[in-house]
Amino acid sequence: MKRLIIIVEGQTEQEFVASVLAPYFREKEIYSVTAVPIHKRGGGKGGMSNYDHLKNDIVKFLKSEDDIIVTTFVDFFRIPTNMPGYADCMIEGVPHTDQVNCLEKSFGQAINDERFVPYIQLHEFEALLFCSNKGFEYFYDDTIYNKTKEIVDAFVNPEDINSSPQTAPSKRLLSIKPDYDKVIEGNLIAMEVGINSILEKCPRFKAWVKKLCEVVAK
Description:
It is a single chain. The chain is an alpha/beta fold. Strands 1, 2, 3, 4 and 5 form a five-stranded parallel sheet that branches. The longest helix is centred in the N-terminal third of the chain and has 17 residues. The radius of gyration is 17 Å and the shape is globular.
């Protein structure tokens, strides 16, 4: 069984891996799962402002041992312009899903290692919270969860929620609850929603998790 390293943007995604993804992988008998925030120059961690920071981490882990699978869990929202294939993939008018698929393909080709599984979240972490209104109903009062329900009901696939600066999933949530805490509240809501609902409603996310299960078990 290989070791799985998931390189994430920050603490929110790191907590999500620990509290939601890792328990699911353990059910699949995948026990070595570690989420690592992107390391920046100067010792900083987290954030996806420069592709080179992400690439350096990927290459470092792949060189560290042979029995390893490295993947990414980063947002499409405001993805760096120096990502491999950015100019060719981000053509105006092309659907976001096609853009992300193109970026992932270019990303994988740039790293060029069968132990690397590129994944870009469409559009950001908060999209997963809108798979069900269950989490919002559990933690918030009806003045909030009635509004979140409108968003949940509006999208069959939460991955399709608009990623513009005004209507990205996190912006929608902040417009409803201005003091929303991404790290704490976001992960508590995700745990209440549950991995099964997320896998059921988010096909790209499901395909990524399924592929990880397959390549780690080889």
